[in-house]
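Section 5: illustrative case.
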């Protein structure tokens, strides 16, 4: 019976932490209701799994180790889920030599971009889906290997004036 409790605690913590990571992602992406539902589920899982650990903790301290290992693996799996889902958009702030800016803007004309000119270089702001960010950055570097690129999470807004 003890092994079943260990497995339950471990799996509960893995699921709880993976869902908690997913909750952070969906809330950051503006899906507040889905985030709230995930928060409810993680709270229930946490309460039940913690109760199993705390119950007779001094008689079976190995439950704490199982709890911690489940937390560890759940956090890792959550980060993998975040990496694979790549929801949302990134704003790439690209500083390039002025001679490259037209080529870069033409290459990524399917994305919204803005050009700011300075005395020394051009700054291009490009909004791309997060899952395409790495590819776009690599292509920009192929065009201008000395480009300076800053990537930030972007929340797109279509607010209309009153």
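Designed sequence:
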């Amino acid at each position: 019976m003890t092994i079943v409790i260990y497995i339950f605690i471990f799996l509960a913590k893995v699921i709880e932490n993976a869902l908690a990571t997913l909750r952070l992602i969906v809330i950051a992406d503006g899906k507040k209701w889905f985030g709230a539902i995930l928060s409810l589920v993680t709270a229930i899982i946490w309460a039940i799994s913690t109760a199993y650990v705390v119950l007779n903790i001094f008689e079976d301290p190995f439950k704490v180790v199982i709890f911690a290992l489940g937390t560890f693996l759940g956090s890792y799996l959550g980060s993998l889920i975040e990496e694979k889902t790549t929801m949302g958009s990134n704003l790439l702030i690209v500083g390039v030599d002025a001679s490259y800016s037209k080529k870069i803007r033409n290459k990524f004309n399917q994305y919204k971009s803005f050009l700011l000119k300075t005395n020394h270089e051009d700054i291009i702001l490009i909004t791309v889906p997060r899952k395409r960010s790495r590819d776009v950055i690599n292509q920009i570097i192929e065009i201008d290997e000395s480009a300076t690129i800053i990537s930030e999470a972007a929340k797109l807004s279509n607010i209309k004036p009153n």
